[in-house]
Design a protein that fits this description.
- This protein is an alpha/beta fold.
- It has helices at about 20-30, 45-55, 65-90, 100-110, 115-125, 145-150, 160-180, 190-210, and strands at about 5-10, 35-40, 95-100, 135-140, 185.
- It has a five-stranded parallel β-sheet, with helices on both faces.
Length: about 210
């Protein structure tokens, strides 16, 4: 199977299983004959990965302001789009990205950056390169606490308390409600196999059979 490039993003809080689902989608779509490019944000290119480390792991006892954090994310995104995402889509590949602009909307607005400012920056950086489909993996943060601990990942967001993660969940659900044509919410607590099946059904309905 071949055809135009497609841009799929996965969003959700910490420990929702995005990485596992992405791996499953890569296998399934590749088996269908699609050219698949898997990437992540912040990151995906050498420059963007360097920004990722700077943004998520600042020097000890140092912290970025919320606005600086948002600008760093968009700095990485600009390079990511120019040097990986847009060229891959132009080749007809299906790009699957672990987080994208919705994460900046969610996390940085909670940290205190005005949403209108975030959307204005997003418009400049992202332009017309919008996801064709966004899968939002959803679960109550308390139900994901064990997963987050098992991952043994430590960055500025993983260290936040349950209240913060609850606000992140609400922010993603609000995005899904506002943009139902693009976004689909999936139950992150089901088995990896069931989650993959649900995701493929959404892809078939919204991207393949549409």
């Amino acid at each position: 199977m071949s055809g135009p490039g497609r841009f799929i993003t996965l969003e959700g809080g910490e420990g929702t299983g995005k990485s596992t689902l992405i791996a499953g989608l890569e296998r399934a779509l590749s088996a269908r004959g699609q050219k698949v490019v898997v990437t992540r944000e912040p990151g995906g290119t050498k420059l963007a990965e360097a920004v990722r480390n700077l943004a998520l792991h600042p020097p000890e006892d140092e912290a970025w302001s919320p606005l600086a954090h948002a600008l760093l994310m968009n700095t990485a995104r600009d390079d990511h789009l120019r040097n990986l995402i847009r060229p891959a889509l132009a080749r007809g590949a299906w790009v699957i990205c672990d987080r994208f602009a919705d994460s900046t909307r969610a996390y940085q607005s909670i940290d205190g950056v005005n949403l209108d400012k975030l959307l204005a920056i997003e418009e400049i950086v992202v332009g017309e390169t919008r996801p064709d489909l966004t899968l939002i993996l959803d679960a109550a943060p308390a139900d994901l606490e064990a997963r987050r601990q098992d991952r043994n990942v430590s960055d500025v967001f993983e260290k936040k308390d349950l209240s913060f993660h609850g606000k992140v969940r609400s922010a993603f659900l609000a995005i899904a409600e506002k943009e139902p044509e693009r976004c689909t919410v999936l139950n992150a607590l089901q088995s990896p196999e069931a989650l993959l099946s649900d995701a493929l059904s959404v892809i078939d309905r919204k991207l393949v059979l549409a």
